[in-house]
């Protein structure tokens, strides 16, 4: 069990006593030959590698401890410690005793575990060493050479200590200054060699901190301070280091204080969570003592709130701004500091900072890899590696130091940070500046003193673009003639408060390309208008509904104008319902006339034809037939299968101006025995085929003689050389 020899003013003798009875200290009796030990509050450990005396006491206990005299200290000491054995010895070399004991520690030293002051001049001190074994023991005390400590009596001799008997050792201590001194005694018995430390405790600084500091009930997220007037009541300059843990802090944390001087120490309580908080304020002296002051504070929410949880800003035009207000009511007795944040908790802010730092780290690695590749080409670039690394290091430091106040391009909070005085209110403006014509929603959080959780505020605002409208939504142009050109006008109004930049979206349909809208693009000032000229000329017949779109810069929906109507072909007619040729004879042409009238407002290009007419050579008159013996029709079987063209139209093609007319002559020269019921059809360019038809009728009539009663009658012609050619007049 380790003890220590303490020295002060009066000379004392160190005694060793031998006991044979059992010793107890708040525990059941134990035999002395077993490992007995005592715990000493504040006593040094068995490891003597350091000479700093470690003590952890409250300020009042430390003051009381430092105020004790040596006699008072020794009188109050009731604890013993196991000495540090540095060597085990063979008993057979120095003793005839053959009895082995289970306890290796044969001596116990009492009253050596406390610290006390030394005063000048140094004197003697004695204490009693007692043997707790049941057999005598040889004890030799050796003191290493020291200018401050000297073993006076006995000197370097062995003494046998009987059971329960004391042995006195005298040590002379000669200090040179008022400071701590450390030395050790080496005690040697038959079985072991152990060390008894000697400590001379010099002057001490004592800062009169209180044992407890109670902050009572305080607002959460608010700094409550207590200022202590601390004086150095010791007899040594205080070199101190003061520390504590969150949510408490202290200022100053390190310094010196002369003897009798005082200073102000500010302890701050800044809790982030509601509830009870217990910590210790630790004053560490350069002499090794740690003095603990208990700190306590209770954090609660106070009456601080927003006047609303949601806020809707009126519809706002792009490039303009609008605002609404929210009020922070402070019904407490503190100055509430507020900050508007984008995250609901501090943990989310820290996670965002971590993500940003990781992103910067990846960017730095990519840049560094690229830079190293460039350095292989140009080694002089290696000098810039440090600049690159320092640049990213500064960026990361900026991220870590960012207070993460709310910042947004759409919603702006003014002020984003400030104070609200006790029992007052503060008005906060929320400015809305939309960039697109859509609905915006954002939740911001007010981090304010006196409230543990951040106060949410849901903000909603809608951005609207330019308000362009046509004077009418639909334009019905009715029936228009194909190929005709028509012009219309539509007025485009700007009913909004901002300039409107518009442009025509090109139509994608064939009929849409028949329209021309001018101007195709432009800008309309607020409350202004723009006339849109519309021109239409179509070559496509039929009903139509065409939608034209004007895109407006800043508006998600275009402005539309719907045009509907029907494109019709030219209107025309013949002046007769039909052309009736009556009875016609072979080879005798017959001509009839009709008039084609264009009643439309556009010119009409036409083509006349008779689909049922033959596609062969034109038919011939009887005179031509009789006068030309070389014609194929005189040859037997020369008629073939291709029928001759028997109708002639003059003119067969042309253009009739708008509301004009044209006389048409149709001639029939029959070369075929049949009844004619055909149609004269009109093809109109750009409109279609067979738009109109005129009925043609005729009936083939044989010659007025009775030759029809003579079967096999033929017309024959004899040439000069005697050749004869015949033809059948009935075909």
TrEMBL record:
InterPro entries: Hydin-like, HYDIN_VesB_CFA65-like_Ig, Ig-like_fold. One of its GO terms (cellular component) is axoneme. The keyword Manganese does not apply. Its main location: other. Keywords: Cell projection, Cilium, Cytoplasm. This is HYDIN/VesB/CFA65-like Ig-like domain-containing protein. One of its GO terms (biological process) is axonemal central apparatus assembly. It is found in: Cell projection, Cilium; Cytoplasm. It comes from Buteo japonicus. PANTHER family: DLEC1 DELETED IN LUNG AND ESOPHAGEAL CANCER 1, HYDROCEPHALUS-INDUCING PROTEIN HOMOLOG. Residues 205-298, 466-566 form the HYDIN/VesB/CFA65-like Ig-like domain. The keyword Cytoplasm applies.
